[in-house]
Specification:
329 residues; alpha+beta; 4-stranded antiparallel beta sheet; 3-stranded antiparallel beta sheet; 20% strand; elongated
Amino acid sequence: MKRTREEVDATLQIAKLNAAELLPAVHCLGFGPGASGAAAGDFCLLELEPTLCQQLEDGHSLVIRGDKDEQAVLCSKDKTYDLKIADTSNMLLFIPGCKTPDQLKKEDSHCNIIHTEIFGFSNNYWELRRCRPKLKKLKKLLMENPYEGPDSQKEKDSNSSKYTTEDLLDQIQASEEEIMTQLQVLNACEIGGEVYFELDADKICRATAQMLLQNAVKFNLAEFQEVWQQSVPEGMITSLDQLKGLALVDRHSRPEIISLLKVDDLPEDNQERFNSLFSLREKWTEEDIAPYIQDLCGEKQTIGALLTKYSRSSMQNGVKVYNSRRPIS
């Protein structure tokens, strides 16, 4: 049975509510014949920030990525989010065509009663939390089949591992934009689709340095810089700035030395990353450690904030240095 206006007014009086302080339109809720079947578990509610809602309204897609043994993430075209179930003590009702108070205010409604059918309900919803893309797996997949040139036997072997962009999107828990950016960082090459090529001086200098350093545990810095400059093509200028996140210079040793330390070989977890770095060197300047923690910074997190959380600062010969907050075994 549908409620009358008199029954609504009587309910307001019992509840001691002043009808003059409320909107004139009244929603009378009732469970429809299919509501009991459309209970929790048949539908998933997803809480979205306004920018993601706008992307959906503009025709873009949101994709859930993750293998069976991975925690699922949701990806937009350029960001990655953790998916978490949030329980609520308030029952969430599914009401098709339900009008909000703001929508009702815009309408000419004179004490009308709106009979609304509840289609289903839920006691939880999915909420999103921005997270760093999980990109370690990307390098692992690519290293299954390093490119050795068009004439190599592996290129002629149809069974060798190769991945299309779609394959990577299916297997890597990151947005397309984040994956493409990381492919550039890893110096990955696209086979069967690049048309124009040019030499990148910084990348060639960096790759040459890596080749030289990976053959020695430590390298006399002055000797390394001389050999490095002689090893790159004529006209290219080497600079230690090209080695950020790839090599570490020890200015306190005599003679000064340089050694290979690649940021992509370090742990992804924040605490594990700092533990690893402080096990290699007790004290760091911000300039030295920054290339090795830059990728840990979130959307609103800075290098300074990370250092404050995971390290202690002190002055050493007039220079601020950072060391671990906890003993490192």
